[in-house]
Amino acid sequence: MISPLIVALISIGYFALLFAVAYYADAQRKVGRSLINNPYIYSLSLAVYCTSWTYYGSVGRAATSGLDFLPIYLGPTLIAFTWWFLLRKMVRVSKEQNIVSIADFISSRYDRSPWIGALVTLIAVLGIMPYIALQLKAVARTFDLLVSPTTVSEVGLQNLFPTLPTYVDTAFMMALILSLFGVLFGARHLDASERHEGLVAAIAFESIVKLVAFVTVGLFVTFGLFDGFGDIFSRFSQQFPERLSLFRLDTAAIPYTKWFTLTFASMMAIMFLPRQFHIMIIENADERHIKDAMWRFPAYIFLINLFVIPIALGGLLLNGGDTSQADYFVINLPLAAGHHWLALLVFIGGFSASAGMVMVSSVTLSTMILNHLVMPLILRLKVDIRDFSAILINLKRFGIIGVVFLGYLYYRVIGDSYALVNMGLISFMAAAQFAPAVIGGLYWKRANKKAAMAGLSLGFILWFYTLLVPSFVLSGWMESSILDQGPFGIDLLRPLQLFGLAGFDIWTNALFWTMFFNLGAFLFLSFFCKQKTTEQEQARHFVDVYGEHLIPEQRRRISKAPTIMEFVELMSKFIGEKPANAAISSYLSGQEINSRGSLADHEIPALKGFTERTLAGYVGSAPAKIIIDNYLSTRGSEMEDVFDIFGTVTLSRTASREQLSVLYEAAKIVSRSSDLDKTLHGLLKLLMQQFKFDLCVIRFLDEQSMTLAVKAQMGMTSKHFGESERNLDMETYIGAAFLSNTASVVNDTEYLDKPESSQIIHREKIKSFAHAPIVVEGEPVGVLSAFSRTSKGIFTDEFVALFNNLARQVGIAWRNHQQLIELLNAREQERDLQIAKTIQMSLLPTGIPEFSNVDLAGLCVPAHQVGGDYYDFIRRSNGTLDLVIGDVSGHSIGSALIMAETRTFIQAMRQIEQPYAMLDALNRFFCEDLSRAELFVTMFYLQYNPESGRLLYANAGHNNPVLWRSQSRVYEMLDGDGMILGIKPDIDFEQRETRLEEDDILVLYTDGVTEAENVDGQFFGEARLQSLIEEYRQLPAKELIDQILEQIRLFTGNRHFNDDISLVVMKVIHQNPRISATQTEPDN
Amino acid sequence: MKTPNTTSTREAWILCLILGIIMLNFPFLQIFNTDRSIFGIPILIFYFFIGWPISILVIILFVNRLQQEEDDKDESRDEEKP
Q1: Smallest Cα–Cα separation from A142: which of A422, A350, A411, A424?
Q2: What does the alpha-carbon distance between residue A1051 and residue A1042 come to, in Å, rounded to a whole number?
Q3: What is the value of ipTM here, to two decimals?
Q4: Quick check: A799 pLDDT over 80?
Q5: Nearest alpha carbon to residue A117 among A531, A625, A798
Q6: What is the pLDDT of residues A244-303, one digit of tens each?
Q7: A844-1079 — its CATH code?
Q8: Do B24 and A78 touch (CB under 8 A)?
Q9: What is the CATH number of domain A4-428?
Q10: Residues of A with CB under 8 A from a CB of B
Q11: Is-above-0.90 flag for pTM?
C-alpha cells in the first residue's frame, strides 16, 4: 500500500508537468516556433488511440479470452496503408474548408446540413460515453488499488475520507479532475480552427510516458519475474495446459467472424473516432507528417503490445489462474512484488492514457455539441446576443464538463458489468457508423445529403439497439427479457440475434446489421436521389480537392452587399474583435481595393466566403452558413447571378432540361417583341401553361400613387383580386416581396402570418402562392405573382429559383420597354428642335440693306440646341436703319414661334418711329402671351440715321452693345433702362441718343458670345470681345464677324457652341465703302 | 495533380492493404492456427509478432519511395523555374 498522500502529490506533480509542457508549446507557437509542427510529435499524438483500454484492458483480454485484443491494433496498422491518400485527402479537405470536427466534416460534405451535424454529434456523444466511462473506471480502480490493495472496492476514497458523501467516489473525483484538465488544455480561449497546440504537446508527452511505463513493467515481468518470453510460455503451457486455446483462433471465444469484425471496427475507429479525427486531421500541421506517422504510429502500437501477452500470462501464473483481476495485472504484479515505485509509474502511465483520451474527446465533443446542437438552436431562436465570443467559450467549458460527467453517469449505470474492452468496443462500433458517409463522401460525388442522413440514422438506431440496449440489460437497468425473448415477446427483434441472425457474437451481429442498413440506405439513396446545386458544389470540393480551381467559380454578386466593416463587425460578434481584425487584415492584404476603400462588386462574394470560412473555424461550417445567411437576409441582401451581356440568365449547370427550356422560351418571348403588353402577356401565358397556375399577375410600381398597379394578368376573371392594386407596405406578402427585394413564398396558405393578405387569400381559396420581385439593375420595379388553387407546396427551392429568373426576364422586358420609350422621346424632341431651327433660320434676314456709308453684317450660328436668337435690319422709308437684336428664352418650337411673331410685329409696326415706343408696344402686345408660355424676350433696339449719324437706342434687358470710338479709341457700352419683355405690361423704356463718327464700329451680340465657355470654365467675356474689335477694326464688317467667331472657337476649343451665337456689326464708313474694303484687303 | 506515378503508388498501397487483410484473416490464419511453437512461443503469436514488424518495414520502404518521388518532383520543378 502506498500512502494516498504520495499518490496524490505525485499525481499533482504530474499534472503540473503536463500543464507546463502544454504552456510551453503554446508559448512557442506564439513566437512562431510551433512544437507540434514536427512529424515525431504528430506520430506520438496519434497514440492517443492507446487509452487505458490498451494499458489495462489488453492484458485483461489476453488473460481471459486470448488473442482478440490484437485486432484492435492490427486494424490501425492495416489502415495505415491507406493514409497517404485517404488521410491526406481528409486533411486537405479539412484545411480547405476550415473544418473543426468530424461532425463538421460530414455536415460540410452534405450541403452543410445542420441536421447531419446534429446527428453526427448525437452519435458521437452517446458513442463515446461508454469509452469515457471506461477511462474513469480504469483510473479510479487503479487509484484504489494503489492506496488500498486489500479492499478492492469502488469506494477506496471513502475508506480514506469517510465524511465524503456516498456519490463522491474516486471515479467522481477523477471525472472532476479530468474535466478540469479538458477545460484547462482545450478551452482556455477560443481558437481559430480548433487548433490546440498545447493540448497536442501534452498528449504527445503522455504517449511517451505511457509507452515507457508499459514497456518498463513488461520488461520487469518478462525478465525480472520470469526468464524471458520462452520461459513464460513454457511455464504457462506446463501449468495451464487446458488454457492453450488462449494462443489459438477459431475458438469458442474468438471465432474468425469476431476476429474480422474487431479488425474492421478498429480500422474504422482509428479514422473516425472524434478524438482520432481531431488529432489526425484537425491538429495536423503539415500533410507530410502523415508519411512518417504511417510507420511510426504502427511501430508505437507494436511496441506497446509486445509485452501484453507476457504480462497476461505472468499474471495468470502468479495469481494461480484467477482472471477476475486480469484487467489490473499491469499494476498488481509490481505491487505484489513490492515494487511500489514501479506501480506508481504504471499508475502514472495509465493515468496518462486515460487523461489524454478524456481530454481530447471531451474537447472535441464539446466543440461538436456547441457547433451542431447549441449554436443552431441559438441561431434558430434568434437570441439576440451582442457578444457571442465570451458566451461561446463558457458554453464550451460547460460542454467539456458535461461530456465527462455523461461518461461518469454511464459508468455508474453500467458499473462493473462490462470489462474495459467491451465498453470500448461499443464506442468503436459507433465510430464505424461514420465510415460510409465519410469515405463515400470523399470518393463519390453522387453521395448525397438524404443518403447520409438516412444511413447515419439507421446505423445509429441499430447500434443503439444491438449494443447499448444489451449493455443496459446486463447492468440490470433494463428487463433482461428483451434479450431473451425480444421486445414484446417478438422473437425476431432480439437485439443479439436480430432478425433471426443467430450464431454470431454481439459485435459481429451489431456490425453486420448496422452496416447493412447504414451502407445500404447510403448507397440506395445516393443512387436514386438528386442533389441540389449547392450540394454538388460541396461534393466537388471534397471529391476533387486535389483538382481545385479546375471548375471556374460562377460569377455572382450580392445585391445590397454589406461593406467590409460590416463583415468585420459580424465576425467580431462571434469570435471577438481582435481575431476578427487580424483575419480581415490578412485577407485584405491579398486583395485589390479600389479608390473608395472598398472591394469591387465581384470581390464581395469572395469576402462573404472568407467570412464564412473564418466563422466556420470557430463555430463549424453549418452554423457559419446559418449566421451568414441570416445576416444577409435580414439586410435584404441576396446572392444573385450576374447577367451576361446578352441579358440572359447565367443558370447553374444543374438546372433541369425543363427549367432551361422554360427560361429559353421566356428569353425568346422577351427578345421577340418590343411591345411590353404583348411580351408580358406572352410570359404569363408561358407561366400558366407550364405550371398550371390559376392566376398570374404582373404589377409594376406606380410612382405617383406609390402602389403596385396591375400591368398584366391571366387566369381568374376580372372580379377577382388580380385586378386590384396593392399598397406598398410590409403588411402584405406582395409588399414585403417588393420592399425586401426577395421572393415571398407561401407553400401552404393554412399558415399565414399577415392578416391583411390572409382574408383575401382564403376568400379566393388559394392554396399556395409566390411573389417574386421584378428587379432591374438591383432595384425592384414590380412584382410577379403566381397563385394556385389546386396544390400546396409547388414552390420548392428549385422552383422559386426558376420563378425568380422569370421575374428577372420580366424585368428585362420592362427595361427594354423603358429604353424604347426614352428613344422615342428623344426622337420626338429632336424633330421638335429641327422644326424650331428651321423656323429660326428662316426668320433671320436673308439680305443686308445697302447704305452708302454703312458697312453692315450679321450672323447667327445656331448651337446644337436651338435658342431663340434673333436679329433684324429694317430700312425705313425716311432713310433710317433700325437694328434689332433679341433673344427668346427656351429651346422649343414655342420660342421659335414667339420669335416669328416678334419679327412680324416689328415689321408690321414700322410706323412706330422711336425705339422705346417699339419696345413698349412689343411688351404690351406680348406680355400676356409670354407670361402664359413662361417665356421672355430680351431685346436691344437701335435706330441709326446715316445722314446725320444720330443713333437712338433703347434696351429691354439685353446685353449691352459695344461701340468702338475710332477717334478717341475708347469703348462705349450702350445701355438704357428697361426690363425684359414679358414680365409686366407697363415698363418705362429709356431711350438714349448718341452720334456716330466715321470709322466707329457698333457690335451687337447675344449672350452666346460673351458666355462662350472654355474647358476651364472661363467665359469669353466682354473684354476679349472689345480687344478683338480694336485689333481687327480695319476689317470689313463681314470679316470682322468671321474673325470674332474664329476667336471664340479657338477660345472654346470646340467647333460647336453650347448656345446660339449672334453678331451684328455696323461700321460707319466713308462715302464709298468699296474703296475702304479694297484698302483693307491687302492687310488681310 | 495526379501523375501516373502517384496513381501507381496508390494502387500499390491498396494492394498492400488487401494483402494485409487477407493475411490477417481466415483462411490464411488457419495455416498458423496449430499447437506448434517456435523457440517456445506458440506459432500463431510468433507469426503475428514477426509479421507485424515486417508490415511496418514494408510501409517504411514505401514511404521512402514516396519521399524520393517527391524530391525528384521538387528538383524538376526547381529546374523548370528559371
Answers
A1: A350
A2: 14
A3: 0.90
A4: no
A5: A625
A6: 888 888 888 888 899 999 999 999 999 999 999 999 998 888 888 898 899 999 999 999
A7: 3.60.40.10
A8: yes
A9: 1.20.1730.10
A10: 67, 70-71, 74, 77-82, 84-85, 229-231, 233-234, 244, 247-250, 256, 259-260, 263, 291-292, 294-295, 298-299, 302, 306, 309, 546-547
A11: no
